[in-house]
Q: What sequence folds into this?
């Protein structure tokens, strides 16, 4: 059984508080079309589960297949450094076909980020270490592609449509979290 | 019938010499002295985003940190492997268990007779050519690298040579 290492914590990007009973963690890639589909499912699950669910996202860019995935992840982290992580996260997934550096700059402007700082962050790859650390976490946790989900610390096997994930999370909520 | 009895830890890893390119063969014994990870898989060209080999390639540094050599093995022909590796930008060799078909997979106990392909079996072979860890993923489950990396970590801990900074399993 593959388990999440380390468990979801304050250094992760979270939607919802860690104290909530259900933790859903996604290892994702901004250029991966399946991850794009999953975003829609996750938003629907959050509406359905309300304050039961804490969602966390870790980066797992597959740069061999997706040449812009890593710089897009860096852009999201750079936006996060200015308090706009989820806004950038959503913009990237809504614009998966346009993730080259000039596009990323346009999204940053759209979000009203300090552009000097944003550009400097990307040029210096200031957030690459966070992405590498996420990828290491994915490697030792058993990520087998993107998206890979962990529900209360246990890797979710099988499809990631609304019903499958909801059923798995409802079941997981009956047991203590593994991580 | 799928594969039922893959080789277990403690067994000697059967020697092989398989084509990695049209004119180059790689033998298990070429890597004596360092750990080798054998990743048997059914076929090239499975869907991109959930591709096991693409993920392993992405995290190749995790294997290297343990001083290990990763080898992918399937029954696909060497030209197929070449095209697949190029398309997916794979950073490790793919070996062709093509003729006699599945011969090496059979020796490791992971050939799936019903499907005519290798099962998704993983082996960690230590520097002396003994199997240190093995695992067969259930049908339809794409194994990640967590089991491999944990086994490589254990191998590093049990051997006397200094271990690289890697492999906290907690």
A:
């Amino acid at each position: 059984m593959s388990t999440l290492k380390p468990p979801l914590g304050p250094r992760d990007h979270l939607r919802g508080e860690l104290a909530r009973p259900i933790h859903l963690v996604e290892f994702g890639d901004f250029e991966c079309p399946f991850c794009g589909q999953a975003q829609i499912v996750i938003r629907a699950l959050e509406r359905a589960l309300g304050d039961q669910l804490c969602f966390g996202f870790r980066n797992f860019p597959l740069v061999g297949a997706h040449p812009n995935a890593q710089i897009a992840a860096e852009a999201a982290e750079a936006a996060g450094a200015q308090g706009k992580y989820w806004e950038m996260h959503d913009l990237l997934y809504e614009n998966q076909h346009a993730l080259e550096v000039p596009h990323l700059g346009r999204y940053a402007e759209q979000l009203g980020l300090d552009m000097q700082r944003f550009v400097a962050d990307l040029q210096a790859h200031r957030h690459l270490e966070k992405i590498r650390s996420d990828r290491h976490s994915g490697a030792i946790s058993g990520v087998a592609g993107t998206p890979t989900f962990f529900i209360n610390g246990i890797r979710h096997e099988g499809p990631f449509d609304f019903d499958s994930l909801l059923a798995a999370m409802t079941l997981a909520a009956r047991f203590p979290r593994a991580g | 019938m799928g594969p039922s009895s893959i080789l277990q830890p403690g067994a000697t890893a059967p020697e092989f010499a398989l084509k990695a390119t049209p004119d180059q063969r790689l033998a298990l014994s070429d890597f004596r002295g360092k750990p080798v990870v054998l990743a048997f898989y059914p076929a090239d060209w499975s869907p991109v985003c959930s591709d096991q080999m693409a993920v392993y390639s992405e995290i190749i540094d995790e294997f290297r940190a343990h001083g290990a050599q990763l080898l992918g093995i399937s029954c696909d022909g060497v030209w197929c492997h070449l095209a697949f590796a190029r398309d997916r930008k794979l950073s490790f060799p793919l070996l062709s268990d093509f003729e006699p078909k599945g011969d090496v997979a059979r020796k490791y106990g992971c050939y799936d007779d019903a499907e005519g392909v290798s099962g998704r079996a993983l082996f960690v072979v230590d520097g002396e050519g003994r199997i240190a860890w093995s695992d067969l993923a259930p049908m339809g489950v794409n194994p990640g690298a967590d089991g491999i990396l944990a086994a490589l970590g254990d191998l590093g801990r049990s051997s006397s040579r200094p271990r690289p900074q890697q492999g906290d399993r907690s």
